TrEMBL record, chain A:
Residues 8-138 form the Histidine kinase/HSP90-like ATPase domain. The keyword Flavoprotein does not apply. InterPro entries: Anti-sigma-factor_SerPK, HATPase_C_sf, HATPase_dom. The keyword Protein biosynthesis does not apply. It comes from Actinomadura logoneensis. Keywords: ATP-binding, Kinase, Nucleotide-binding, Serine/threonine-protein kinase, Transferase. This is ATP-binding protein. Gene3D superfamilies: Histidine kinase-like ATPase, C-terminal domain. It comes from the Bacteria. Residues 80-101 are annotated as: Disordered. One of its GO terms (molecular function) is protein serine/threonine kinase activity.
Automatic annotation (TrEMBL), chain B:
Gene3D superfamilies: STAS domain. Belongs to the anti-sigma-factor antagonist family. NCBIfam families: ant_ant_sig. This is Anti-sigma factor antagonist. It comes from Actinomadura logoneensis.
Length: 148, 117
């Protein structure tokens, strides 16, 4: 079970709130302050992408965020509710950071995914029956909390 | 924090846009509108001062790329002033340091502009 679960309406204004909560939980989980900006930015990008997808396909559905820690990792999962058959072409491939320049100038940029790929220590983008899920994680200075 | 966007034009015809706050999916439309408004007013040489930007995401990058395309259509330019490492890192990750001229100060940008004339 995630340490913190959050769902928010698919509105751009709430992405900032999500960033603030992620930063607070990451700090509490022992993420190094030196990489806190990277965590904040990568999660903000994933939330922005999900909000945009929801606004196009299912504006009334909330965006889901799961934050958990353990085994020296802080993990964030951002899930949207846009099934692959609705999102054209399914989940986007994770671009290499070097690809983004060409994409940006071609006017078809998914700069957000390029930023996530460049910032997160570990990234996995997958499709579930309910939508696209972006899982990211970063190291912490704490081991797993033993179960009681 | 709300995004503050102001601008002024130098005697040399360079329009400096100072941006303060967080540029994200919520606030980026304000910067986009400013850039479009300036281009519509015939201001094709733009310098965006990012020294007071506290956060920048890909939506903000997209707005800057969009602005660059608009001014280039008029043989103009869009360059940046930025020394903040956390902001510069985003430009480096996305390869956009190759696209934008990035200066340390407004004065430096003005000097290079005069030198290029």
């Amino acid at each position: 079970m995630a340490t913190v679960e959050l769902s928010f309406s698919a509105l751009p204004v709430h992405v900032r709130t999500a960033r603030l909560i992620v930063t607070a939980v990451a700090r509490r989980s022992g993420v190094d302050e030196a990489i806190m900006d990277e965590v904040r930015l990568a999660v903000g990008e994933a939330c922005s992408r999900a909000v945009e997808a929801h606004r196009s396909h299912c504006p009334d559905e909330p965006v889901r965020l799961e934050l958990s820690d353990g085994d020296h990792r802080f993990q964030v999962i951002v899930s949207d509710s846009v099934p692959a058959d609705e999102a054209e072409g399914g989940p986007p491939p994770t671009p290499r950071p070097d690809d983004s320049l060409e994409l940006a100038l071609a006017g078809d940029a998914d700069l957000g995914l390029a930023v996530i790929a460049g910032l997160a220590d570990d990234v996995e983008i997958s499709t579930t029956p309910k939508g696209v899920q972006i899982r990211m994680s970063w190291p912490t200075d704490r081991p797993a909390v033993p179960s009681a | 924090m709300d995004l503050k966007v102001n601008d002024y034009t130098t005697d040399d015809g360079l329009t400096v846009i100072t941006v303060e706050g967080e540029i994200d999916v919520y606030t980026a439309p304000k910067l986009r509108e400013k850039l479009i408004d300036l281009v519509n007013k015939g201001k094709f040489h733009l310098l965006v001062d990012m020294e007071k930007v506290e956060f920048l995401d890909s939506t903000g990058l997209g707005v800057l790329v969009g602005g660059l395309k608009r001014v280039r259509a008029h043989d103009g330019s869009l360059e940046l002033v930025c020394t903040q490492e956390r902001i510069l890192k985003i430009f480096r990750i996305t390869g956009l340091t190759k696209v934008f001229g990035i200066h340390k100060t407004i004065a430096e940008a003005e000097e290079k502009r005069k030198g290029a004339k």
